[in-house]
Amino acid sequence: MNINDGHCHFLSNRFFEALGHEKVKGTRPVSGSDVATELAMEAPGPAESLADRWIAELDRNHVSRAALIGSIPGDEESVAAAVRRHPARFVGFFALNAAAPDAADRATRAFGELSLRCVCLFPAMHRYGLDDDRTAKVFEIAAAHGGAVFAHCGFLSIEMRSRFGLKAAWDLRRGDPLALATVAAAFPQVPVIVPHFGGGFFREALMAAEACPNILFDTSSSNSWIRFVPGLTLVEVFRSALTVAGPQRLIFGTDSSYFPRGWRKTICGAQRTILDEIGVEPEVARCIFSGNFDRIFQPAS
Ligand SMILES: [Zn+2]
Prior knowledge:
The protein is of the alpha/beta class and 301 residues long. Helices cover 44% and strands 13% of the residues. It has an 8-stranded parallel beta sheet. The longest helix has 15 residues, at 282-296. The radius of gyration is 18 Å and the shape is globular. The relative contact order is 0.14. The structure holds zinc ion (ZN). Zinc ion binds next to strand 1.
């Protein structure tokens, strides 16, 4: 079966440098490769080499296309370089702090000049409302460029940050899918991806999807948030999501991020098993594992 991965992080040298800078607070120079080594991860090297590393990994696992997420604001260039190198295989996503003064300029350049396709919002991390004017402005820019919005809702944990000893002073209340629904409803032409089924706000995510046909879920990660809902299993999560949002609005993803771990094959295997257990038709599995991604992010012709 053809597989597209809707959720991979492109952890560039700049990403690791930013972690290092945050830790030493500008008291001394830091090198991205030193930070990666300290985290027991492969140093990414230049964006082009990391892009090639990902292509080899996708080929090895028979993955056709992947979303690559530039995972800190200001790292749009790295992802753009990867996409330029392998335009048929990568779709560029970029993290944006919608509350930053340069947010509109950055988003305009990323969607325009850099040809990235999806802006990623982390409202809990950057402390703004999904239902405020700053978010609406980002949607307006996405709409003007035919782009998509990815909005992280629910519980947020970033493994490398905690492993690197960085504090996470986040406001998890900001990641409410119902706040997202207000802006998603105002921009019905913009595809809105909620990763990890809403990351713990599952009920709210389902309600948001019911209210807004442009909201999709990505299935990525181990979805360990299900431990916050007593008795919930990932099988039931898929079943409910298929009932409420339907097969056209689930996008398979792994949340792969670093090497040497590479592409998270076990996530794919576990989700295939779940869909077999539910007994979905092959066409439904095809939508989830590749078709929906190709529909939202049509391959460059
Ligand atoms: Zn992720």
